[in-house]
Design a protein that fits this description.
Elements lengths: L3 H11 L8 H8 L11 H9 L5 H15 L13 H11 L3 H10 L9 E4 L8 H6 L2 H12 L4 H15 L14 E5 L6 H15 L3 E6 L3 H22 L40 E3 L11 H6 L14 H4 L4 E6 L3 H14 L1 H4 L4 E6 L23 H12 L3 E7 L3 H4 L14 E4 L6 E2 L1 H4 L12 H6 E3 L1 E2 L3 E2 L1 H21 L10 E6 L4 H16 L6 H15 L13 H16 L5 E4 L21 E6 L12 E6 L6 H6 L5 E2 L8 E4 L3 E3 L3 E3 L1 H22 L2 E2 L2 E2 L28 E6 L5 E2 L8 H15 L7 E4 L8 E10 H10 L5 H12 L10 E8 L7 E2 L7 E2 L1 E2 L2 E3 L2 E2 L5 H12 L2 H4 L14 E10 L18 E7 L12 E5 L18
Parallel strand pairs: 2-7, 2-8, 3-5, 3-6, 4-5, 6-7, 10-18, 13-15, 13-16, 14-15, 16-18, 27-33, 30-33
Antiparallel strand pairs: 1-8, 9-17, 11-12, 19-20, 21-22, 23-35, 24-34, 25-26, 26-27, 28-29, 31-32, 33-34
Helix pairs in contact: 1-2, 1-4, 3-6, 8-10, 9-10, 10-11, 14-16, 20-22, 20-23
Length: about 1000
């Protein structure tokens, strides 16, 4: 039955390519005889009010309104994207009344989710929302599939925005002159990067890209995973069958997926051959089981038919009628050699006409050139095999756009920007937002706690050590947790059938070593523990009951079905054990150097109905390989590269219906040499902080200044930080030299952590700060955290210090890593360049009021409240400032003078124009601190730490926030940017 109202609204909105227009007038003109004119929108209002999940009319308006909410370039509105004002402008132009606006706002809230962070050269804006709407056959099919899979409106809108941001930064496929953009998309480990590049592929081929090459991992297992995702969610049944009758078994011989659990129901259907429906077909040059094949097949498949033979393929009349070609190939020298050989046979003239998209999944693996420049012949670049072949592909296909995808971007941004034939993301770098429902860093690490000695809520809920004093090695406990969480999943599925699909697979990962011999021994040990665990006997049940009561009940998600006692759960333990034991063993070893080592039916998450196994492995269970249903991890593997370590964090990901059950058993004192140990949990926290800092920096510098980017991708390398001395951001042969000169942070909390360790340096710093202590008032004041009378408060001594006097102090301080604070100091030295400058600083010395406080005098000062802090990453401290102190400082530095006259002891009462804030922390590392009977502490035992907030007056509103010196091979050792030159 025809949905006339949906048809009418589709026609009306299709006429609004350039933004919202009066709906009633267009509806009156466009309505067919059998369609309701609905000029008062009463039918529309009632339909949306009563709509349930999956209503197509509501979905249509969700896409439309969200697109208007997000549009960066909207000539019909002066309001900022993602605001109520932008939505109100749309409603005004549509002519909607107040009642309809309220109904739509309830059904389609203003999209406020954070979008991707974009660092790029100035885009050409060829790919507008209007352009995308005109040709959207494959994107629309993909979007509908995601909605059927249960994606929320917000998740679909977020993917739409992020993929659009990538495509609009590619070159226009119809442009006469060839240009190959280079870009990088940064996601999170196991956060849905494949969904993003599937969306990018859909939009790119809709827009006119006719050859898509996906570099999908270094193993056929990973390549096959990617091929299947693209076939299932983008290419679709009709393009896979190529006209074969799905009801004829003989016609299906040689067609893949006939043995797939999800074929054909979960594969997208276009309801007919796309070319018959007015779109174009996609021809696959690879299949699930077959990588790229050479010679005739490859050559013939790349011969494009042109409607107008006198015009090039990229001419619109040819391009939009030609079929697209898609291939998913391994990053393998032999495979890529076949492809390059075939392309060379086709020849340059034709290749120069093909708009091509190359997507490099896990682009920091194998793709980066790791040869030593010092060993190159004069004037000649020597490349590693895969890097050289990618460079060849880009050279053979001058219209090829290269987009790398990774969760660990450091190796990519360290590529030499001066090497024009390499993969440096010269045109754009896009950082994807953390997806809704993603279980990531913040779920395992309490990054904002001030007292490093206290276990935070995230660690308490999910993280366990490898050893404890009572039981020694906790591997047996981890196995108990695995069977217990399996039983809990079965219990939840039986009480809420909608959860069953999330529990199809249930896995545990054990990762101790890179050595295959050790994997085999570990697998035998696990099997032995498992078979002696007596899970069906009284002893086993008693042990599981104790673990359930102590470690799972306290952290259970209140919104999910939960047994009140172990007695309710006990019947499900037997079924969980049975599923884990299926096939005769609970353990699978996943390692090796050849494909056959991975060709295990029990490990095939696509074709096996249930994978309930304990996986033992190393590197091959890390990068790119998605361990479905991962719930318990036992991790002890060390590495000295931050990006390698991060990729091993398989416990990050989506855990719908069981995130409260996730447990990480991780080594806290793993041997590293003869005398040293490393805390792997601390190491993960350090690199997580590095990555979060990197993303935060990108966000700060993404804002355009006078319509131009503050930072281009070539200036990104200095934003990469390193918190652990033994844990480099990337392998040494992937790093490129660059120096960050200045960071301007007006109105932002700056907290140095690289304080010295040498007693002489600690004494020196204390002596430098000593005169400042005399400026503090003798009486304490009470500062409230916020403006509310009942807000959290703290006692403090306060005083003021002139800007020049503070600079003398800061310039005289000694550091363990001077480069950590020097860019901030440089900004304070240059304060006032283009701005109003800084007059003075409010110095705040918090005082403890609890009965457990420790106070001491130093060098004859008044008694100071001592703060205990720990060095968490080599010489670097963790968090020093407390949230209530930071918030008070921020409120003072950000307030204007009028706010400062409000009175009271709210922080704003101390605000003045051109005033910054310094918060001092006399820090001790020992417990108890070395305080003499007379109440004194030696300056060598004190770390005079601080945090500061510069006032907004310290820099002009449109002043660039950063200045760099970046070493570029084309400039030898010269600096691209000198002091005072701004950003080039």
């Amino acid at each position: 039955m025809t949905d006339h109202l949906l048809q009418l609204h589709g026609d009306v909105l299709a006429a609004m390519r350039r933004g919202p227009r009066n709906f009633a007038k267009l509806a009156f003109v466009l309505a067919e005889d059998e369609e309701p004119a609905d000029t008062d929108q009463g039918g529309f209002r009632d339909r949306v009010t009563a709509a349930g999940a999956g209503d197509e009319l509501t979905a249509l308006w969700h896409r439309t309104l969200t697109g208007w909410d997000l549009a960066e370039q909207a000539d019909w509105s002066t309001a900022a994207p993602r605001t109520d004002e932008r939505r109100a402008d749309a409603y005004d132009r549509l002519g909607f009344d107040t009642t309809l606006r309220k109904v739509l706002d309830h059904a389609v809230p203003v999209f406020r989710e954070p979008g991707p962070t974009i660092i790029s050269t100035t885009p050409t804006w060829w790919y507008s929302r209007d352009t995308a709407a005109v040709r959207s056959f494959y994107w629309s099919a993909y979007e509908q599939l995601l909605r059927r899979k249960g994606w929320s409106d917000a998740a679909v809108a977020g993917l739409d925005e992020a993929s659009h941001a990538v495509v609009e930064r590619l070159a226009d496929p119809t442009r006469p002159d060839a240009y190959g953009a280079r870009g990088l998309v940064v996601g999170y480990v196991q956060s849905g990067k494949t969904a993003n590049f599937t969306g990018v592929t859909a939009k790119a081929i809709d827009a006119g890209y006719r050859l898509v090459i996906v570099l999908g991992g270094t193993l056929n297992l990973l390549r096959g995973q990617t091929q299947r995702r693209l076939d299932m969610e983008l290419i679709g049944q009709e393009n896979i069958l190529r006209g074969a009758d799905p009801a004829d078994p003989e016609a299906l011989i040689g067609v893949d997926y006939q043995d797939d659990e999800d074929w054909p129901e979960k594969f997208v259907s276009h309801q007919g051959r796309p070319s018959v429906l007015g779109a174009f077909d996609i021809e696959r040059l690879t299949t699930r089981d077959d990588d790229y094949k050479s010679l005739a097949t490859g050559i013939r498949a790349l011969e494009f038919d042109k409607q107008i033979r006198t015009q090039p393929l990229y001419a619109p009349d040819n391009l939009h009628r030609a079929a697209a070609r898609v291939m998913v190939v391994k990053k393998n020298k032999s495979v890529l050699s076949k492809l390059i050989k075939d392309l060379k046979k086709i020849g340059g003239p034709l290749l120069s006409e093909i708009p091509t998209l190359i997507i490099d999944d896990e682009s920091d693996q194998a793709s980066v050139n790791t040869t030593d420049p010092k060993k190159w012949e004069e004037g000649k670049v020597t490349r590693t095999a895969i890097n050289g072949q990618i460079s060849q592909l880009l050279g053979l296909l001058p219209r090829a756009q290269y987009v790398g995808y990774t969760a660990t971007p450091f190796a990519n941004v360290f590529v030499d920007p001066g090497d024009g034939d390499d993969i440096f993301p010269r045109d754009f770098l896009i950082s994807l937002p953390r997806p809704t429902g993603y279980m990531g860093v913040q779920d395992f690490h309490d990054l904002d706690r001030a007292d490093e000695s206290v276990v935070g809520s995230a660690e308490r809920a999910h993280v366990r050590g490898i050893y404890d004093d009572a039981h020694g090695d906790r591997l047996a406990e981890a196995l108990d947790a695995f069977i217990l969480t399996g039983a809990l999943k079965l219990y939840r599925a039986s009480h809420d059938p909608s959860l069953e699909g999330h529990f199809r697979h249930h896995t545990m990962l054990v990762h101790e070593s890179v050595r295959m011999a050790e994997h085999a021994a570990l697998a035998l040990r696990i099997s032995s523990i498992w078979h002696q665990a007596a899970y069906t006997g009284p002893e086993g049940h008693a042990r599981l009951e104790a673990l359930f009561t102590s470690d799972f009940q306290p952290f259970a998600d209140d919104g999910l079905p939960a047994p009140a006692s172990y007695g309710e759960l006990r019947p499900y333990v037997s079924r969980a054990r049975q599923l884990i034991n299926s096939g005769g063993t609970p353990v699978l070893v996943v390692n090796g150097d050849t494909e056959r080592d991975y060709d295990q039916p029990d490990l095939d998450f696509d074709r096996t109905p249930n994978v309930w196994k304990i996986l033992v492995g190393g590197t091959k269970l890390s990068r790119g390989f998605t361990v479905e249903g991962l719930t318990v991890t036992y991790y002890r593997r060390r590495t000295q590269q931050a990006d390698t370590l991060m990729q091993m964090g398989r416990w990050f990901g989506f855990r719908p219906g069981y995130r409260d059950l996730v447990r990480l058993y991780i080594g806290r004192a793993e041997p590293a040499g003869k005398t040293r140990t490393v805390d792997l949990y601390e190491a993960f926290e350090a690199i997580c902080r590095d990555e979060e800092t990197f993303r935060a920096q990108l966000t700060r510098y993404a804002t355009l200044v006078d319509g131009k980017p503050q930072v281009t991708p070539a200036q990104i390398p200095p934003l990469v930080s390193q918190h652990l001395s033994w844990l480099k951001p990337s392998a040494r042969n992937k790093m490129f030299n660059a120096e960050l000169v200045e960071i301007r942070s007006p109105g932002e909390w700056v907290e140095p952590t690289a304080y010295p360790t040498a007693p002489a340096d600690l004494r020196h710093n204390t002596e430098v700060w000593r005169p400042v202590l005399d400026l503090l008032g003798a009486d304490s004041v009470t500062l409230r955290r916020d403006a509310t009378a009942g807000g959290d408060s703290f006692e403090a001594q306060i005083g003021t210090l002139g800007h020049e006097e503070l600079l003398k102090v800061l310039c005289d301080l000694r550091w363990s890593v001077p480069s950590e604070f020097s860019p901030h100091l440089e900004s304070l030295l240059s304060a006032g360049e283009g701005g109003e400058g800084i007059d003075d600083w409010l110095v705040i010395l918090p005082r403890q009021t609890s009965s457990r406080r420790v106070e001491a005098s130093v060098l004859g000062s008044v008694p100071l409240s001592l703060a205990h802090r720990s060095r968490r990453r080599g010489d670097l401290f963790g968090a020093i400032g407390e949230p209530k102190h930071r918030e008070a400082a921020l409120r003072i530095a950000r307030a204007n003078h009028a706010e400062g006259l409000s009175g009271g002891k709210a922080p704003e009462s101390f605000a003045r124009e051109r005033r910054g804030v310094v918060v001092l922390y006399p820090v001790v590392e020992e417990k108890p601190p070395a305080v003499s009977p007379a109440g004194d502490i030696a300056p060598e035992h004190l770390v005079m730490a601080f945090g500061l907030v510069a006032p907004r007056s310290s820099t002009a509103p449109q002043k660039n926030l950063v200045r760099f010196r970046t070493v570029d091979s084309t400039r030898k050792d010269s600096a691209i940017i000198e002091r005072g030159a701004g950003v080039s």
